[in-house]
């Protein structure tokens, strides 16, 4: 970059009220100056200033949902054997779709894991009771098992972030990609962290603090990377989207896929019933005739508390972050600037920064805002959507927090409960406490089964059944 170009760039930052970015310019080394110029050049100031203006001044209406939402209609969970029998045709449609190679798996794994205090990419976290498999390995095994069962290669896209990318790829390299052949990594976009008045926050004297652009960044990343075109060329019609921090997500689920195909849905979603009004999950709703998710913080209290005559929560459809996305529908956005369609949300954040002397500091309280897109904001753009209920243990026990609710501890307990429940239905004798927990650790590999029905089928076929005791691993 010539001196003249550098000067022009700095003027641009002035024009957009971001001149402080160059506050330490005169005392930066030439290497630091180059680093700052390169980063500054990569930012589209015009676009960013519009986004910032929108989130700070136009979109920010906390009660914007109050009077205009109704609860989403959903397909109820088949609770009994009779109900499951009725789903046979739907499951067969799903199986045919998978066998025909029309489904790809897509994991978003670019989050920062702030609540968990993760120093490595979340996918590397060891998350099974006995074998301490990483989250990445769990999903790799689910995908391998589906490839075997349906005798078709399954393409697996993994979204990472600037920070997580190299470490993720290295981890897969070290583990021989867990023997999954068709893995594609894609890096999501980044956004600058801003102050409450819209100024970029400096991480160092020569670097603007950046963060991943949210799981909604997946849509743009798929287009930009050419992966969407690749899927289309491969004849793949459905993207099975799930989040790395929920090892219960069924990455390839014939019942879900069959329901999506049968209903000609463009975006399908898995829900679980909210357990209590304050539970921190978004809720599927309808708004102006379209589906949407209202975040728990945006759901007005009256609606959150509302119960029907039977005492059930009315706004009960909790978002699990598991969706099926129609490739052609996602492609519609490809030509457009998706950012102008999908809104940004803001979250308060502690952003490591510098003081007035340019020295690094870690604030004790939130000092900045993170701008993120959410995948579920695509819902209102779809004409056809379905929401499918699931029982919790079959699909949802995410690892979000270091302790308490939705932590590694609760996720491990839920795995034990799930495995035990399958073994009990299979007729084994296994003691449990009042919470359904066995007195010892056991583990069932996703390569054996990732759901009750596959488990029962395989278990029946076993010539000699393993004894159920402490540290038993069934694979
Ligand atoms: P969360 O919204 O729970 O965020 O992500 P997080 O980043 O993992 O954790 P916190 O909020 O900082 O504590 C849900 C899923 O979306 C992915 C995460 O990796 C997780 O699988 N995600 C989130 C991304 O891939 N990119 C993002 O920018 C944000």
Shape-level CATH architecture of the largest domain: Alpha-Beta Complex
Largest sheet: 7 strands, mixed
Q: Tell me the CATH topology of the largest domain.
A: Spore Coat Polysaccharide Biosynthesis Protein SpsA, Chain A
Give the uncertain stretches in residue-range form. none
Secondary-structure blueprint:
Layout: H1 3-15, H2 30-42, H3 45-58, E1 69-71, H4 81-86, H5 88-99, E2 103-108, H6 135-150, E3 156-160, H7 165-174, E4 183-187, E5 190-192, E6 202-204, E7 207-208, E8 210-212, H8 217-224, H9 227-233, E9 238-243, H10 254-262, E10 267-273, E11 283-287, E12 290-294, H11 301-305, E13 317-326, H12 327-334, H13 338-341, E14 345-349, E15 353-354, E16 360-361, E17 368-372, E18 385-389, H14 392-395, H15 408-425, E19 442-444, H16 452-461, E20 472-474
Parallel strand pairs: 2-3, 2-9, 3-4, 10-18, 19-20
Antiparallel strand pairs: 1-11, 5-8, 6-7, 9-13, 10-13, 11-12, 14-17, 15-16
Helix pairs in contact: 5-10, 8-12, 9-12
The structure holds uridine 5'-triphosphate.
Describe this structure in words.
The protein is α/β, with parallel strands linked by helices and 475 residues long. The protein has three domains: 3-42, no CATH class; 63-399, Spore Coat Polysaccharide Biosynthesis Protein SpsA, Chain A (Alpha-Beta Complex); 407-460 and 469-475, no CATH class. The protein contains 16 helices and 20 strands. The chain has helices spanning 3-15, 30-42, 45-58, 81-86, 88-99, 135-150, 165-174, 217-224, 227-233, 254-262, 301-305, 327-334, 338-341, 392-395, 408-425, 452-461; strands at residues 69-71, 103-108, 156-160, 183-187, 190-192, 202-204, 207-208, 210-212, 238-243, 267-273, 283-287, 290-294, 317-326, 345-349, 353-354, 360-361, 368-372, 385-389, 442-444, 472-474. It has a seven-stranded mixed sheet, sandwiched between helices. The protein has a three-stranded antiparallel sheet with strand order 1-11-12, with no helix packed on it. A two-stranded antiparallel ribbon has the order 5-8. α7 (165-174) links the parallel β3 (156-160) and β4 (183-187). α5 crosses α10 (254-262), α8 crosses α12 and α9 (227-233) crosses α12. The structure holds uridine 5'-triphosphate. The site of uridine 5'-triphosphate (UTP) has 23 residues, from loops. Uridine 5'-triphosphate binds at residues 108-116, 122, 159, 161, 188, 212-215, 217, 243-245, 372, 400.
């Amino acid at each position: 970059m010539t001196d003249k170009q550098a000067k022009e760039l700095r003027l641009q930052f002035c024009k957009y009220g971001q001149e402080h970015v160059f506050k330490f310019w005169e005392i930066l080394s030439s290497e630091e100056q180059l680093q700052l110029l390169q980063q500054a050049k990569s930012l589209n100031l015009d676009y960013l200033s519009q986004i910032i203006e929108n989130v700070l001044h136009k979109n920010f209406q906390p009660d914007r949902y109050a009077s205009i939402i109704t609860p989403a209609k959903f397909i109820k969970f088949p609770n009994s054997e009779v109900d499951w029998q009725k789903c046979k045709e739907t499951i067969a449609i799903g199986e045919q779709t998978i066998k025909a190679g029309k489904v790809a798996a897509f994991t978003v794994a670019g989050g920062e894991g702030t609540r968990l205090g993760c120093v490595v990419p979340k996918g590397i976290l060891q998350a099974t009771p006995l074998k301490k498999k990483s989250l990445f390995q769990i999903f790799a095994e689910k995908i391998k098992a589906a490839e075997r069962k349906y005798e078709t290669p399954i393409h697996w896209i993994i979204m990472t972030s600037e920070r997580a990318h190299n470490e993720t790829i290295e981890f897969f390299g070290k583990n021989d990609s867990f023997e999954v052949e068709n893995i594609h990594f894609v890096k999501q976009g980044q956004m600058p962290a801003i102050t409450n008045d819209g100024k970029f926050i400096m991480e160092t004297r020569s670097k603007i603090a950046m963060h991943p652009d949210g799981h909604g960044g997946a849509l743009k990343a798929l287009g930009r990377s050419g992966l969407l075109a690749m899927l289309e060329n491969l004849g793949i019609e459905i993207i099975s989207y799930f989040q790395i921090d929920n090892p219960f997500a069924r990455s390839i689920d014939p019942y879900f896929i069959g329901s999506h195909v049968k209903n000609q849905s463009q975006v399908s979603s898995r829900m679980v019933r909210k357990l209590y009004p304050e539970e921190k999950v978004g809720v599927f709703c309808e708004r102006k005739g379209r589906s949407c998710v209202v975040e728990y913080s945006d759901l007005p209290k009256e609606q959150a508390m509302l119960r029907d005559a039977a005492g059930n929560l009315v706004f009960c459809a909790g978002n699990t972050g598991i969706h099926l996305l129609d490739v052609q529908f996602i492609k519609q956005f490809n030509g457009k600037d998706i950012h102008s369609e999908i809104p940004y949300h803001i979250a308060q954040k502690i952003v490591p920064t510098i003081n007035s002397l340019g020295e690094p500091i870690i604030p004790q309280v939130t000092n900045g805002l993170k701008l993120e897109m959410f995948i579920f904001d695509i819902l209102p753009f779809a004409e056809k959507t379905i929401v499918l209920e699931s029982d919790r243990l079959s699909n949802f026990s995410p690892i979000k927090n270091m302790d308490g609710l939705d932590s590694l501890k609760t996720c491990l307990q839920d795995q034990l409960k799930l495995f035990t429940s399958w073994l009990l239905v299979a007729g084994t004798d296994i003691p449990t406490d009042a919470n359904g927990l066995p007195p010892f650790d056991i583990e069932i590999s996703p390569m054996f089964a990732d759901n009750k029905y596959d488990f029962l089928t395989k278990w029946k076929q076993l010539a000699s059944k393993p004894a159920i005791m402490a540290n038993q691993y069934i694979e």
